[in-house]
Each structure stands twice: as C-alpha cells, then as structure tokens.
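Example protein was shown:

_____
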Amino acid sequence: MTGLGKAFAAIVMAVSAAALVAMDQWTKALAAGFLAGKGAVRLVGGFVMLIYARNRGAFLSLGSGLSPTLRFVLLIVCPLAALAFLGWAFLSRGMGERKEKYAVVVLIAAGGVGNLVDRLLYGEVRDFLNFGIGRLRTGIMNLADLYILAALIVMIVAMLRSGRAGKAGGRTDSSGSSS
C-alpha cells in the first residue's frame, strides 16, 4: 500500500472509530437519562434486557474495590498504553494489508476509547445491556464492550480462515501470500 493509501486508510479508520465512540457515548447518555432507577426493561422476549448500572471496575466489576490510585493505573494508564501500542502496531509495516486487521483495530480502539471517556469524565463506566436466556445471562455491558467482543470474533474467524488457507495452499508467510 502506498503512503497515500495508508494515510487514507488511517483517516477512514479514525473517522470510523470516532463515529463508534460517539454512538457509544450517545447510548450511554440515553441509558443514564431513561433507565437510571427504573429497573429492567425486557426486549425481544427477555433475550435483551436494559438495566442501567455504573461500574467503577473493569469487566464484571473486577478491580472496583482497588484504591483510586491503583484503579487509575490499571483502568486508565494501562488502556491508554495499550491503545497507543495498537496505533503504533497498525502504523508500522507489521500490520499487513488485511481488511480484518483494520476492522479489529477500529473496533478495539473505539471500545477502549468509549470506556476511557466514561472513566475520565465520570470515574466509572455506564453500562446498560444484558443478554441471555433464562438464568444464563451476560454481565451488564455497553456498546464499547460489544465493539471489543466483535473485534475478538473477527480475530478468531480470521485466524481460523487463515489456518485453513495455510493448510490448503501450503505454507504462508506473514503477509498471507503462499511461499
């Protein structure tokens, strides 16, 4: 990819991530305004439940009982470093040309930034989505969390596809071309 092509791809990715962050923040504001203190709202036969919750920790409230300093380091500094690393890895030559990688970078960046915005502005993350059937349910999450989950699914599917392609067509190098 040429320098101009890489610049265009980076701009498209940044705009896409910004749009996803805006959607995440908008839905969190709606949830805070319409769901806080209202209990659960059941949708799609109860498969989706809207329940407003504020989370001072990470996934499933892990770390919510830590000291403010340690929580700041683990939930703000470390994610910022991870996002910076992700940006560096994309801009370096090692990321390759695969569309799946672009999607993964956008989704992880949008998810990370969406939750970082909450932590920086509110000291906690606003969650409101719960999925499941009967007693088998997820934790309460938000769109930023779903972006990260979608990125993991894209990564797994891409790895499975590249594994099958490697077995079918012989050995592949890091750019995905057969050798």
About this structure: The helical segments are 3-34, 68-91, 99-122, 143-169.
